[in-house]
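Continuing the series of single-chain predictions for the mutant panel. This is the parent chain; the variants come on the following pages.
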Amino acid sequence: MLTEKQIDRYADVLLWGLSTARSGREKKGDIVLIRYSLPATRLAETLQKKILETGRHPVLRTGPTPVMEKQFYQISTNPQLTFQAPGEKELVEAINGSIFIHAPESITHLSHVDPERIGKAALSRKYLKDILDKRESNGDFGWTLGVFPTDELARHAKISTDEYAKQMARACFIDRKDPVSLWEDVFKNATYLKKRLNSMKVSKFHIESETIDLEITPGERRRWTGVSGHNIPSFELFMSPDWRGTTGVYYADQPSYRNGNYVKGIRLEFKNGNVVDATADEGQAFLKKQLTMDKGASRIGEFSLTDKNFSKINRFMANTLFDENYGGKYGNCHVALGSSYADTFDGDQKKLTRERKEKLGFNDSALHWDIVNTEKKRVTAHLASGIKMVIYENGTFV
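Parent structure:
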C-alpha cells in the first residue's frame, strides 16, 4: 500500500488541485468538505491536519459502506429514495471546497439493483450539483477528487494491491520527492496546448480509428480545458461540445464499471445528436437503462483527448479516474454520455444561465458516464476557413 511519505505527498497534491481548480482566492475561514471511504481514513486525517494548519475549517464525511448502500437501494420506498436530509442544501451553499477520496471496498455490490432506482436517487440530488456549479462559476467554490488503492480495485484490475498502489503512485507522481512541481509542469504544458487549440475556429472534429467514425461539433463560445486541478490524476484536455452536432459511430474498447455493473464493448450510433442505436458485448441491458435516465442521458456532454506523453498510466485500473487518463501506446479519447461542463464555456460563467446553456447546446443530465477508446486514431479539425488540420494522432497532440 502507500507509505506514510506517499500519503503526505498525495495530500499536498490534492490540496494543490483544490487550490488550482478554484478561480476565486482561498482564505482563512473557508470551509472544506472532505468526503472519503473508510479505507482512505489515513489520507483524510492527513488532509484534515494540513487544512487546519492553513486556518480553514475541514468538515469530514465518511461514505456509506457497501452494505449500507445496497440496503438503501433495495429497501427504500420512493419517498425514501428521494429524501434529502436537513442541512444538505445549507451545506453546499456554504462550503468553499470539496475533496472526495474514492476507496471502494466493493465495486459490484449494486450490480443487481434496478438502475432506475439509482437514477431516481441521483435525479433527486441534481439540484445540489446545480448549486455547486453556480457557486464554482462565481469563484466561491472549488473541488478535486482522488482515489486510494484498495484490495477490491486491485482484484478487478487483475493485479496485486501492491502493484496497484505502485501504478497509482507513478500516475500521481507521489513516488517522486516533489510531486507538486511535476504537476505544475504538466499544468504549464497543458496550458500551452489549450491556448493553441482555443486559437482555432473549428466547425467540427472528425475522430477516426478502426472502430470509430464520429463527427463532433464544438458549437459557439466553447473552449478546451483540463489539467485544472479537478482530478488527481488528470492529463486529459476536453470540451463540452454542442450535443446537437454529434453524428456517426463511437466505440469504447476499454471496459467500464458503473453502479456495480461491468460494461464492455460499448458501441453507440449517433444521429442529430442523439443515440439511435446502442449495443455492448457485456452489460447491454444496463447500458440501455442508463440512456433512458433522463432526456440528456443519450447525448454527449464531453469530448476528451489524453496525450501519452503526459500520462504514466499504461493499464486498465478498474476506476474511471485512472482509465479516462490512460496513456499507454496510443493515448486515449473518451466521450461522456450525459451532463456537460459549464467551465468549457468561453465567456463569463456568471452569465451562463440555464436558458443560455440550452440555446448553446450544452447538455443537461443527471448522468455523466465516461467511456474510453485507447485505439490508434486520428482527430482532424475542420476549420471554419475550409482547411483541415490533424490535431491528434498516434496518441499525441500534433
